[in-house]
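hi!! sorry for the late reply, been swamped w classes. u asked for the two structures so here they r. pasted raw, havent cleaned anything up. first the sequence of the first protein and right below it the tokens
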Amino acid sequence: MKKFLIFLIVSLVLPVSITAQSATCPSDVRAREPVACAELDRLLKEESEAQKEVDRLKGLGAGFTSDIAFLTAKINTAQANIKSKNNQIALLTKDIAIKQSKINVLDGRIVKGKQAIAAILRKTNDINSYSLLETVLSDKNLSEFFVDMDAYASTEEALGNLFAELRSVKALTETEKAALAKKREAEAVAKAAIETAKKQVEIANAEKKTLLAINNANKKTYEQVVADRQAKAAKIRAELFQLLDIKPIEFGDALRYAETASARTGVRPAFILAVLQYESKLGANVGRCNRPQDAKKWQDIMPGPLHYSNYLKNGKTCNGPNSPCSYRDDQSAFVRIMNSLSRSTEGTPLSCPIVGIPGWGGAMGPAQFIPTTWEMFQSKISQALNIGTPDPWNPEHAITAMALYLSELGAGTQDWTNERTAACKYNSGRTCYINGKAGPGLSYGVNVMAIAESIQRDKIDPLQNL
């Protein structure tokens, strides 16, 4: 028994290397893959040089030649980006496999540790079961009995050591799992960047081909080409941007509101509009409540004073005897919001609860804020827009509120991973991945990122590249 314990404890305390993730090649990866990391350095430098050429050409005068040169530089930059990201993915794939192997080893140690603890507890229980009468009547002599008692003392000590080591190994496992999650996120970012770059190459090649054909055939002057671009831009601005529960607005107005909010919060306009568009779609899908024709009214779909009172009675938890229970009182907040707008609570469209998913309804307007959350942002919206009372059904107010909230959720960095995480939190209140598994908001985050890319590529870029 003692030999087994010594072997197990030694095996559990073997050192495990933990390395941090860096922007290019982490030090451990560079030591393991020097050639691949050197190639990545070269590709990143090539990408940087290509971007410098794009920036230089931006300052040149307009014309067929300069536009074609600019498009060529953009294509070169995108292609260099694709090469560097493919290199990063190859390195990350190897690193992910190594991390997963470490986790498997640690998981194995945890299993062995639990088995050893069970064996020790059984042994301890056997020794504890001796009574004085059993000791006297036992066929063992006294020396054998006291050997067992010595084993009991050493077993107790080994048990304490084993618990400590098991906790240490579990902590190491969690650290490795967190590192693995970051590497998988980095891999997802690189793959998304490749898809974006491929589409940029496709669009720039098509535009370059068109300009070359026009220039060679002398069919149009450059001024006519610019006029065509301006006409396309005017059409994009005039397109209707559908919003939930209010009249659609022109895309040009939606973009202007988003750009103003972006200047204050740092959140990309395309990302703001993508969340707004998806929220309006989701809100329409879950159905409307509280309208005159609806069976469910606002009191039926929101938690109220009773729910919140029971939450407090239970010690700020809903795991108690008092029910119905909720950590918020949306009903009172909704009444305050409607009173501040001098509107009736009756008849105002609200989102219904999602069928089949536990939770409440009552989300308001195109940004789908619940009443208690809207109240948290009211003063910030008023300050940002220099207005009195913000209105959840006003598109400018809703877009501003959404940008402020997304910024607090981390989207102001304009990093792909942080944007997707902010979208997941906006939808579900939780990160995209929970304990290494997909969270309830992951599909929402993925869809929002796809919409943001489409809005940027098909609407915003054409307006900025006149």
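now the second protein. again sequence first, tokens right under
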Amino acid sequence: MKQLLTYFLLLFTLPAFAQLKVSADHHYLQTNDGKPFFWLGDTAWELFHRLNRQDADLYLEDRANKGFTIIQAVVLAELDGLNTPNAYGEKPLINNDPTQPNEEYFKHVDYIVKKAEKLGLIVGMLPSWGDKWNKAWGVGPEIFTPENARIFGEYLGKRYKNNSIVWIMGGDRDIVDQEDRDIITAMVEGLKKGDEGKHLFTFHPAGGKSSSNFFKDAQWIDFHMSQTGHSKESKNYLFNIKNRTLTPVRPHLDGEPRYEDHPNQFNPVKFGWMDDFDARQTAYWSMLSGAFGHTYGNHNIWQFYTEDRAPVSWARTNWKVALNQLGAIQVGFMRRVFEKRNWQRLVPDQSILPKDNIENEEYQMASISQDGDFLFAYLPYGNKVKINTEKLTGKQLKGWLFNPHDGYTISLGNFENTGSKEIEPPSMGRGSDWLVIIDDAAKNYPNPQIINLLSKIH
């Protein structure tokens, strides 16, 4: 197992203490040495609050193993994070006072942040879940004012100034009044003072919203994040399309999409459950509609469900088993196949696809490189399609069918660029999704196949 982990880390690891910056065109993130950074996040909201160090190691090693780059976790957690102690009996604050952090609690947070760094992971750190400043629902209590939010922010900023962090404000809440806005703004000011401006910022809103709904013009926000909803009907590509039209231009991604193994529309009896296909579809829709990455989520993992805990919203699978549910493995394949090409050069372009592309569960998405040297097209149901290749510059083209299930490819061979190419995948129907990749043959780009890791992971 250790040899396998070492192999994966060679494939996926980022430099330790990596800090990020926004690209010159404001459409994606880069490491400080100028390399494109592929955000592949996992929602581990209760990580600091519920896991001991041994289990945190297990979780983080697994996610590094599978190719994740970001772990989204909350300091003052959602599930009674103020008054239910962590695995070591420690609460985060003394007397629920944000100006009196409990050093012992934060030593545990320190451990997890440093362990993540060793594995090449960046922590997307939420200082607090939203119920601590806007108790629209949840446990609360509301404890923040602009004054103590600034103090708490400065404390966190100083403590994690030299760690690999992205700050995620909000926590499943909208800004509903001026007090909410003042609290978030003050906390940001404190964080920036404490970390000396070393880290990027975004905001995690409630479902069906984007940070741009509340902070489109805020100078402090570096990229936008949406929460697109826990429903098979969600069309997360619409959020990317909207955010790409905004001024000022900022990178955007889906920071909380459909969760794998989550009850569809929160009603498992009527609507069933979401699965690996739902997780894959929302991921490929994200990337081909202009996102700079994607966050995966698993309903059992965000809450670290075990049988001795009350399940939230019908969680049904022990989190250690859920680690290997297929969607988590397959989004790692997605990251790797995009990185086989200069993915950051992709621009959404639906003219590549036929006009009778109905916006339902079979909706196809496509993007083409700004340089005209390759295109990607996602076929959720594997339907036969005629791809428009007129915008590709090569006279000779080379094609591939990439299988999002297992990372294998089927060669489509070399062919003349006549302006279109008919593609007929070998399988059709729900769950038979395929990614079409067509290259300028003169570029000699490699086979985008990803080594099949499924048998090694299980």
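hope this helps!! also noticed smth abt the second:
The first strand starts at residue 20 and ends at 22.
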